[in-house]
Batch of 2 targets.
Target 1
Amino acid sequence: MTTYYAQRVHFSGELSALHLGGCLFQQYIINVAAKTEQNILNFLVLNQAQLRAELYQGLANMVEHDFQLHPAQVGQ
């Protein structure tokens, strides 16, 4: 989707109605950015199993319990 919008916004030397829109063009760019960001967030929410977020649970437990790790223990 990002490449589609990049192609639409690309200025190829000739003016299009999209580029002559002024404030409407700016609003279009803002809407595209918001839509793209929302799609990224939806992907992250819907694909948590594939992202293996549960692998970071040990790190979350360490932060939660304020576990102090000695430098000699790092990587072991």
Target 2
Amino acid sequence: MKKEKIKKQVLTVLHDVPKTRNSDIELTIEVWKRFYKEHLILGKDQKTHYISIYKLFDLPREDIISRIRRKIQNEEQKYLPTSIKVFEARARKSKEWREYLGYYSKDLFFSKLREYYRNNYEHKKN
């Protein structure tokens, strides 16, 4: 699936349905319902939608939709969460994941690099 096409779909949904700015699952469901209806099965109540697990190959994945949403909100500063609690929770989770995965900020990276060189090379000069 083309990323630009999915980005346009995500932008449309974020614009039209503010609650999707707070939940990647809500956002994914709304994208699927609006743009991929042919892959959904409508329940007997005419409200509930189902998906055959094999149709998942034809739908944009939740992680792709989430990644696009993060780019739109974090880099472009558009369609930000409507809840400050969601904003704070995402910031906290992002920090936790970065630490867990071993990602460093530039400042921390250079600090660790300086420490490494001090410990491994400066003592050899003397």
